[in-house]
Amino acid sequence: MRNRIVVVEDEPDIADLLALYFGKEGWIVHVCHDGRSGLETVRARQPDLVVLDIGLPGDLSGLEVCRELRATSDLPVLFLTARDDEIDRILGLELGADDYVTKPFSPREVVARVKAILRRGRIQAVSTYSFGNLVVDLDRQEVTLDSQVVGLATQEFRLLRYLCENRGKVLSRQQLLDGAWGEDWYGDARTVDVHVRQLRMKLGELLPLLTVRGVGYRLD
Ligand code: CA
C-alpha cells in the first residue's frame, strides 16, 4: 500500500519541496499550512506519518499539535525545527517525536528519515488479527475459520486488511474506498456496502464488523 504523509508547514517553498520529493517516492502527500488544519487532515486522512513544523501560525504550534495527536494515537511524527532551543523543547517535553530535522535541510535527508521511521514501525506492526476462531493473517494474505482457509476475492481481502489495520476506528465509506481501493479508484461508495455484505456472508458472526448508522463501519 502507498505511504500517506501529512506535511504541516507554513512556508510554502519548504512544503512544496517536500511534497515534490515525497511524490517522487510514490507517496500520497497532503500539505497543510497551520496546526488546526493539520490536525483535521490527520483525522480525516489517517496518514502513516506526519512531518510537523514547530513554528506554525495560528493558535497551535507544532508541539501542541503533536501533544493533541499523542493523546489519541502513536502516529509517527517527524519534526522540522528552525532553532536549537526548539530541539531542547522537543526532547525536554518527551512528546514522543520519532525524529527531527533541523532547517535548512536537504529534502533527500528528510525522505531518508521518513523511510527509517516507517521501517521501524513496520517491524513492530501486527500482522495477525484474531476474532475467536477467525484469524486474519496479513503476511500470508489468508483468512482461516476454525483452521479452514476461507476463500476471499482480492478486493474483499484488501477491505478486510484495511479494517483490521484500523480496528476500533469508525471509518466512512470514503475512507474505506481511499484506503482499500486507493485514491485513484473511481467508483460509487455503495461498492463498499457490497463488499461488506460479502465479508459478512463468508466470515459470519465471528467478524465483529458493525454498521455505524449515517457514518460507515467499525471493526471491533
Ligand atoms: Ca514555520
CATH topology of the largest domain: Rossmann fold
| Count of DSSP-assigned helices | 8
Strand content: 15-25%
* CA gyration radius, whole angstroms: 19 Å
For the record, the CATH class of the largest domain is Alpha Beta
Give the assembly state of these chains. single chain
Itemize the secondary structure elements and their pairings:
Blueprint: E1 4-8, H1 12-24, E2 28-32, H2 35-45, E3 49-53, H3 62-72, E4 77-81, H4 84-93, E5 99-102, H5 107-124, E6 128-131, E7 134-137, E8 142-145, E9 148-150, H6 154-165, E10 170-172, H7 173-181, H8 190-203, E11 209-212, E12 216-219
Parallel strand pairs: 1-2, 1-3, 3-4, 4-5
Antiparallel strand pairs: 6-7, 7-8, 8-9, 10-12, 11-12
The chain binds calcium ion.
Description:
This protein starts with a strand and ends with a strand. The protein has helices at residues 12-24, 35-45, 62-72, 84-93, 107-124, 154-165, 173-181, 190-203, and strands spanning 4-8, 28-32, 49-53, 77-81, 99-102, 128-131, 134-137, 142-145, 148-150, 170-172, 209-212, 216-219. The protein has 220 residues and is α/β, with parallel strands linked by helices. It has eight helices and twelve strands. The mean pLDDT is 89. Helix 1 packs across helix 5 (107-124) and helix 6 (154-165) packs across helix 8 (190-203). It is 45% helix and 23% strand. The chain has two domains: 4-125, Response regulator (Rossmann fold); 128-219, Winged helix-like DNA-binding domain superfamily/Winged helix DNA-binding domain (Arc Repressor Mutant, subunit A, Orthogonal Bundle). The strands form three sheets. A five-stranded parallel sheet has the order 2-1-3-4-5, sandwiched between helices. Strands 6-7-8-9 form a four-stranded antiparallel sheet, covered by helices on one side. Strands 10-12-11 form a three-stranded antiparallel sheet. Calcium ion (CA) binds next to loops.
